[in-house]
Amino acid sequence: MVTPLALVVCGVSGAGKTTVGRMLAERLGYVFLDADDFHPPANVAKMARGEPLTDEDRGPWLDTLAGVLTERVAVGEPVVLACSALRQAHRDRLGVDQRRIVSVYLQGSQSLIADRIARREHGFMPTSLLQSQFDTLEPPTDGVCVSIDVDATAVCQRVIDAIT
Q1: pLDDT at 162 exceeding the cut of 70
Q2: What is the pLDDT confidence band of residue 84, given thresholds at 50, 70 and 90?
Q3: Homologous superfamily of domain range 6-163
Q4: Whole-angstrom distance, CA of residue 44 vs CA of residue 27
Q5: Taking a C-beta distance cutoff of 8 angstroms, is the pair 87, 138 a contact?
Q6: Of 100, 109, 116, whose CA–CA distance to 139 is shortest?
Q7: Which of the pair, 16 or 52, is modelled with greater confidence?
Q8: Could you read off the pLDDT of 50-83 as tens digits, one per residue?
Q9: Are 100 and 5 in contact, with CB atoms under 8 Å apart?
Q10: How far apart are CA 61 and CA 67, in angstroms?
């Protein structure tokens, strides 16, 4: 496999997207971006109230992220984007083509992820929204899928092994 220009590290909240994404970016020499930093204030407020986002809420956010990915890939700047990208339509909207932009799905059980969420602090993603994320989730059937049943360093290595 040719090493892709962009990786979209996806999965439900608490799967380790930011942690693994940062590690991947550092190890690969890529720029790291966290999709949470691009949420409009209305989305942040909605999630902070414990209300799940709809695809209508996600649309402008995904379009912004797609623009960023397109710009980076066009100039050959490699990037790792940590983004939930829960549905296939979301990944399609981001431009994931499994060649230049590859999805990396962090797969874990709901109980494992709930335990992780309970032990962390997140600015606007309460544990109560985890069920809605699993309800929305359409796991990718292509790209890279790695189990998060090991520590983040091992998950990162699994991804690198899969893309190189």
Answers
A1: yes
A2: very high
A3: P-loop containing nucleotide triphosphate hydrolases (3.40.50.300)
A4: 30
A5: yes
A6: 109
A7: 16
A8: 888 899 999 999 999 999 999 999 999 999 999 9
A9: yes
A10: 10
What distance in Å separates the CA atoms of residue 17 and residue 20, rounded to the nearest whole number? Answer: 5
Of the candidates 83, 61, 59, 63, the residue with the CA atom closest to the CA atom of residue 6:
83
For residues 156 and 159, what is the distance between their CA atoms, to the nearest angstrom? 5
For tokens 């996600």, the residue is 58
Q: Tell me which amino acid residue 83 is.
A: C
Type of residue at 47? M
Name the one residue in this structure whose structure tokens are 């032990």. Answer: 119
* Beta bridge partners of residue 25, listed in sequence order: none
Distance CA 105, CA 17 (A): 9
Which helix (H) or strand (E) segment holds residue 144: the answer is strand 144-147
**Domain residue ranges in the chain:** 6-163
Question: Which two tokens mark 68?
Answer: 């960023």
- Please identify which residue in the block is written with the tokens 């829960």: 86
